[in-house]
Write the structure tokens for this entry.
Amino acid sequence: LQGAMLQVPEHAPAIAKLVTILDDEREDALNRHLQMRATARFTGLAVRLEEAAYDMPSRGSGREPADSLLPRLLQRTWHDLRNSARIAKRDHTVEHLHTVRIRAKRMRYACESSTAVLGASAKMTAKAAESLQERLGEWHDECAARDWLESTAARNPGLSEVAHRLATLENKAAEVAAKRWDSEFRDVKKGWKHIDSEARKDS
């Protein structure tokens, strides 16, 4: 929003009021978050997660080599990402693109945790998935900004003109970003093919 003052300097006072509203809402959300973290329910969950990290359940004998097992585990993650990307390319709605973003994040973390075994191919795929996640993260931020501006305009009639104008700018930026993630996705696909081909050679 502060950057918007440079784009529409004639509305700087109104934008400053929007910034104040946003800061107040952010502080209120932070306080609610801190209150939630102080509850017994949250504390109990944190303890259980920490215990689970040291006592992970296992399946089978645990004797299968990691370099043959990990690619098969990654395959499901890749298929989920690929399928969601196909849907989003046909119909780039907020819901579909958000699903791609979430699955790119899963692909990234799965590959990052596999680099010690799968090496450079997993590292390359993780980096590509991170780029895809960040590209769609920018789109997500623009959508969130647009939605907030529109809802704030409805609650504050005196700021509605500038809020709607800024929302229009954010919407245009979001529409552009929604169509500019193909390159990052292709890089993830290329990385996965490296992982898959190396696994097939070793099998």
Summary: The chain has a mean pLDDT of 87. The CA atoms of residues 3 and 203 lie 54 Å apart. The chain has nine helices and no strands. The two ends are 54 Å apart (CA to CA).
